[in-house]
Specification:
This protein has a domain of 56 residues. It is mainly alpha-helical.
């Protein structure tokens, strides 16, 4: 059961041949791996907006400039983006372990983060 706009309980109606909208069988649907049109358009719009915003909100350096600005201004959001694009498992040279060659510690002054 689910609530309808009047606030009273209503039963969900199971679709049958008799109450189906349209005639015949359903089509094959979208091929596997092909994103729907809305998703593609939204992705394109997001990338275009970021490119036009750029590093200075006026389009300087395009998409890379925008991403640099996000990395500087919102580390948490940028880290989330990195998590989406980095490989799930990182290995070193020839599949071996990762070796850290240098670690540098830098003291921050008050107000820096």
């Amino acid at each position: 059961m689910r609530n309808n706009p009047e606030g009273t309980a209503a039963m969900a109606v199971k679709e049958t041949k008799e109450n189906r909208v349209g005639k015949g069988k359903a089509g094959p649907g979208r091929p596997k791996g092909l994103p729907n049109k809305t998703t593609s358009k939204l992705k394109d719009a997001i990338l275009l907006a970021a490119e036009k915003s750029g590093g200075d909100t006026k389009g300087k350096d395009g998409l890379v400039g925008y991403l640099k600005r996000v990395a500087d201004e919102d580390v948490k959001a940028f880290s989330g983006l990195l998590g989406k694009v980095l490989p799930m498992q990182v290995t070193g040279e020839d599949g071996g372990p990762i070796r850290v060659a240098k670690v540098e510690l830098v003291a921050l002054e008050d107000g820096d983060s």
